[in-house]
């Protein structure tokens, strides 16, 4: 199932609020669903489904089923980073990513940092870009240095 891009995100910033929002949305708060939310709210950044499964001893199929349900409910969002696995994080997380296209390193970026980039693209094309589903790509400082030296 593909989650519509217009799914309204629920702005809950902590685990207890997320658990309450699950119930308010009429979803069952299963053990697997709780494990997924705990992993996402305890993490320092986005996680792959495999990382979520390992963190809570939950099978991978259950993780995928639950992140999809939670995304449809507006509680979770996912990012695509190059050819690697999708990354998941709480929908309310105010973060965008920049990823190194050479080594895969990634950095979280406050959306206010990329505001000028969005404005420049909109001024030039009329499109309003966002980087919350597909990150910006480029070279990290180490790979950029290696490229200059090599």
First-to-last CA distance: 45 Å
* Low-pLDDT segments: 1-6
Q: Helical region count? A: 6
Average pLDDT confidence is: 88
Helix percent band: 40-55%
Over all CA atoms, what is the radius of gyration? 17 Å
Largest sheet: 3 strands, mixed
Q: Proportion of β residues?
A: 5-15%
Structural class: alpha+beta
Coarse morphology: globular
In short:
The chain is an alpha+beta fold and 150 residues long. Helices cover 42% and strands 13% of the residues. The strands form two sheets. The chain has a three-stranded mixed sheet, with no helix packed on it.
Task: Chart the SSEs and their pairings.
Blueprint: H1 15-24, H2 31-42, H3 49-56, H4 60-72, E1 76-79, E2 87-90, E3 96-100, E4 106-109, H5 115-125, E5 136-138, H6 141-149
Parallel strand pairs: 3-5
Antiparallel strand pairs: 1-2, 3-4
Helix pairs in contact: 2-3, 3-4
Describe this structure in words.
The protein is an alpha+beta fold. Helix content is 42%, strand content 13%. The protein has helices at residues 15-24, 31-42, 49-56, 60-72, 115-125, 141-149; strands at residues 76-79, 87-90, 96-100, 106-109, 136-138. The strands form two sheets. Strands 4-3-5 form a three-stranded mixed beta sheet, with no helix packed on it. A two-stranded antiparallel ribbon has the order 1-2.
């Amino acid at each position: 199932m593909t989650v519509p891009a217009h799914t309204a995100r629920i702005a809950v910033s902590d685990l207890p609020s997320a658990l309450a929002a699950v119930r308010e949305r009429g979803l069952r708060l299963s053990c697997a669903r709780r494990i997924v939310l705990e992993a996402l709210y305890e993490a320092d950044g986005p996680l792959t489904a495999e990382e979520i499964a390992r963190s809570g001893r939950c099978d991978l199929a259950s993780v995928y089923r639950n992140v999809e349900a939670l995304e449809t409910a507006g509680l979770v969002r996912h990012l695509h980073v190059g050819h690697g696995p999708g990354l998941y994080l709480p929908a309310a997380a105010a973060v965008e990513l920049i990823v190194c296209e050479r080594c895969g390193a990634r950095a979280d970026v406050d959306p206010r940092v990329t505001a000028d980039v969005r404005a420049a693209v909109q001024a030039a094309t009329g499109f309003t870009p966002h980087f919350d589903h597909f990150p910006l790509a480029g070279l990290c400082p180490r790979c950029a240095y290696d490229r200059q030296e090599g």
